[in-house]
Amino acid sequence: MRKVKRKYDSAHRKQLAGKTREQILESARRLFRDRGYGRVTIDDIAAAAAVAVPTVYATFGGKRAILMQLLDEMEKAADAPALVELLKNRAGDERARLRAFTDFSVRLFTEDNDLIRIAMLAGAADPDVAVLWETGDARRLAACRAVLEGCEQRGLLREGLTEARAVDILWALASAEFYGMFVRGRQWTPAQFADWLYQLAAEQLFRASPQPRA
Predict the structure, then answer these.
(1) Full set of structural domains in the chain with CATH
(2) Distance CA 59, CA 55 (A)
(3) Taking the model in full, what pTM does it have?
(4) Which of 65, 115, 133, 170 is the most exposed place for a label (fewest CB within 10 A)?
């Protein structure tokens, strides 16, 4: 009797691969939190995820790649694509852009602040992770520039404040460190911090009423 070859079930294999990927990410996230990035090995992650070590390497390529993926997923969860689209709209109101940016920053830091702290600490000991952290910080600085682009020329900034200096101020205020001081250190709620951060940034950056430049 002739055997019928079973069809290759690609959808099922993709589903299993996706489940394995999530198991690895969640196990790595938990271990990084509990032990710190430097004390966790790929063997530890594989054991916690109940997969083989080669499976971890085949799925992500290494520990730094896992950390990078976790940080990328944080940005997606905070809706980074929506912020990017809003900042591209130069016809929009500058205060609306500022509010969107500060709200995004708070969502990002709230999503998994432990993971951000882990990446910061890991960067001090691992040059490759330091580059990863610096790349993310450069993206944040670019977003600050996008929020404030053209504000000096339109006479929107506080008297004597240049656009470059305004970007520096916003970059410092909308930082994980500043968030941690209030939400982690003083038990503010993320919503309280978001409202206060926007008000503070607006007061520090913008005139009460625009003064067009001559």
Answers:
(1) 10-61 (1.10.10.60), 69-205 (1.10.357.10)
(2) 6
(3) 0.78
(4) 65
